Amino acid sequence: MAGSLNPHARELAIMVACRETNYNLEWNGHEATALRNGVDAKVIDVIRKRGALTGIDEKDAVVIRFGRQMFTDKKVDPATYAKVVEIYGKKGAMDLVAVMITYADSGFYGIAVDEQPAAGKPAL
Fold it and tell me: Residue 47 maps to which CATH number?
């Protein structure tokens, strides 16, 4: 599924999709993997809290912005898309979409059945 994405970008995309759909199961399952693949804990916290992207590495910020625009705004700004393509290439941009929609799709199943986080795990 990762396609042209490195593990860092893939896990970042997963975290964004999980947050934007409040998909606790995969969020809690992937948080440690994201950290192991170099996603900074501060970046994960920004995603979790839907915080400002100020001070975030440009490559990470554009993935977060891209996901937020797709899922929340329902429209990707042309400048955001252009920056994603500049950094990740056209294939990378589509691979980000593929990863995000795969996890968002699963997240919607969780919404449908009112999935709750496992005991002792935080809720988004």
Answer: 1.20.1290.10
CA distances from residue 114 to 3, 35, 86 in whole angstroms, order as listed: 31, 27, 39
Cα–Cα separations (whole angstroms), residue 50 to 15, 90, 116: 11, 26, 20
Considering the domain boundaries, does residue 118 fall inside one? Answer: no
Give the pLDDT confidence score for residue 101 in this predicted structure: 94
- Whole-number pLDDT of residue 1: 47
> Structure pTM?
0.90
The dihedral over CA atoms of 48, 50, 51, 55, expressed in degrees to the nearest 10, equals 80
Domains in the chain, number: 1
Domain of residue 45: give its range: 7-112
State the 10-residue block means of pLDDT for the chain, 124 residues long.
84 96 88 96 97 96 98 96 97 96 84 77 74
Is residue 119 a part of any domain in this protein?
A: no
Beta strands in 14-63 (DSSP E): none
